[in-house]
Amino acid sequence: MTTPLVTPAGGGSGSAAAPEDVTVIEVAGVSKRFVIHKDKSLKERVVNAARSRRHREDFWALRDVDLSIQAGSTVGLIGPNGAGKSTLLKTIGGILQPSSGTVRRRGRLAALLELGAGFHPDLTGRENVYLNASILGLSTAQTDGFFDEIVAFSGIEEFIDTQVKFYSSGMYVRLAFSVAVHVDPDVLLVDEVLAVGDEPFQRKCMDRIRRFQADGRTIVLVTHALDQVVDVCDRAVVLEHGVIAFDGAPADATRYLRGEYVAQDEANLEAARERAAETEEAPRTAGARVVSVRVLDREGYQLQEASSGDPVTFEVTLDVPSRSDDLVVGVGLATLSGQGLWGTNTKLMGRRFSVDAGRSTVRLDVAALHVGTGQYEVHGAVAAWDGPEVDRLARGQIITVDGPEASAGILGIEPRTVVVEHA
Ligand SMILES: Nc1ncnc2c1ncn2[C@@H]1O[C@H](COP(=O)(O)OP(=O)(O)OP(=O)(O)O)[C@@H](O)[C@H]1O
C-alpha cells in the first residue's frame, strides 16, 4: 500500500496560516515499539523446531515522548542514527501508529518522508501526482490546476511519464518534495531525504521552506545538518535512544548534541587506545594526550579577548608516554554551537618534530586572526603522522573577538571604501 504524501489530518483549510499561539501538533506520552524477528541459526532452528522458528524481541524506538508544536514554528529534530527521529516524524504524520500515547494534529499536513514512501513504484510520476492528490480528496480538476507547477518545480518534466521505479533517488525526491509543497499544507514534515537532491535543488527546497516560514506555516525537519538547523529552525529537539534529551534554542541544542558526539568520540578513542595498548604493535603515539590548548599574544600571555587581525599563538600542551617523532599537533576554531571554522596542524605546516616522554608544549603562530565579532571555541588535537587522531580537547578555551566594526558575520573582513558612480 502506498503512503499518502499528504494527509488531510484534521481537515484544515490548507491555506490560511494559523495564529502563533495555536498548537498544531500535540504528541502526548507517545511510545513506539517494534517487534524484531531474529532468525536463529540453522542448528537452533532444527533443534527447537517444535517450539518456535523465530526469536522475537521488542524494541522501543520511542519512549513516552511529549512534544507540543506551535503554529508558525520551524522545529528541527536532531540526534544520532537510530535515535527515533524518523519514527517520531512518521508518528506525527499519522503514517505510524504509536504503541501508546496520542498524537493530535490540526490543519492540512504534507509529509516528505523516507525514499520509497508516498509513491507507487509501478505508476508513472504523473499518475502518482494524481493518486496522491486524490488520496487528499482533491478532484482531478483541482489537481490539473497545480500539476504544471509541480512538474516545473521538480525539474523532471522529461520523466514525468516514466514509472517511478525507474527514478533515481534524486528524481524521486524532486517530485515528492514538489508535490508536498504545492498542495498548500499548513504543516510540512520533511525527513532528511532532501539530502539526496543535488545542491541546486536543495537550495531551491530551502528557499521554498523559507517562504513557508514567512507565510507562518509550521515545519518539522529531521536532519543531520546541524548548521542548517541553527540557520533555519527556531527550535530544535534532540532525540537520544527514543527520548527527548534536549529541547530548546537551535544553537543550544546543536551544542548539546555536538558535546554528546565529542563524548562518544572520546569514548571511541579511549576504546581504541585500550585495544592498541593490548596489542604488541601499539603505536608509540597511542597514549598521547592533549592537556590544554591556549591562545597567547606574542609575549606569551594568554588572551581571553583579541581583536580581529591580531597576531596570535596557539599553544598545545601534551603528555606523551614515550619519546616520539611521529606526532602531528593540530589546533582549530569553532563557533560556540560547534561549527568548525578553521584548523591547521604541524603536518599541514610541513613541520616534523620529536618530543620526549612526559609533558611538552607545541606553539603554532598565526599571522592574523581574521574572525568577526563573537566568541569562538579553540580546540587542540594530537594524531599519529600517518595514522588516526589519538586525542582531542574540544573546548580548550573560549576566546572573545572584537571584529571589524563595519562588518557582520564570522569572517573578520574589513571593508574599506564605498564608491558610488552615477551613470
Ligand atoms: N519498521 C521497523 N521495524 C523494526 N525496527 C525499526 C523499524 N523502523 C525503525 N526501527 C528501529 O527504530 C530505531 C529508530 O529508528 P529511526 O529510523 O526512527 O531513527 P533515526 O533517528 O531516524 O535514525 P537515522 O538518523 O539513522 O535516520 C532504530 O533502531 C531502527 O532500527
Structure in words:
The chain is an alpha/beta fold and 423 residues long. 25% of the residues lie in helices and 33% in strands. The protein has eight helices and 18 strands. It has helices at residues 42-47, 85-92, 125-135, 140-154, 169-182, 199-214, 226-232, 250-278; strands spanning 6-7, 23-39, 54-70, 74-78, 100-105, 109-112, 187-190, 218-222, 235-240, 243-248, 289-296, 305-307, 312-320, 327-335, 340-345, 358-366, 374-384, 389-402. A seven-stranded mixed β-sheet has the order 1-6-7-8-4-9-10, sandwiched between helices. It has a five-stranded mixed β-sheet with strand order 12-18-17-14-15. Helix 6 links the parallel strand 7 (187-190) and strand 8. Helix 4 packs across helix 5 (169-182). The protein is globular. The N and C termini lie far apart (64 Å). The structure holds adenosine-5'-triphosphate. Adenosine-5'-triphosphate binds at residues 34, 36, 59, 61, 79, 81-87. Adenosine-5'-triphosphate is lined by residues 34, 36, 59, 61, 79, 81-87. Belongs to the ABC transporter superfamily. Keywords: ATP-binding, Nucleotide-binding, Transport. It holds the Pfam family ABC_tran.
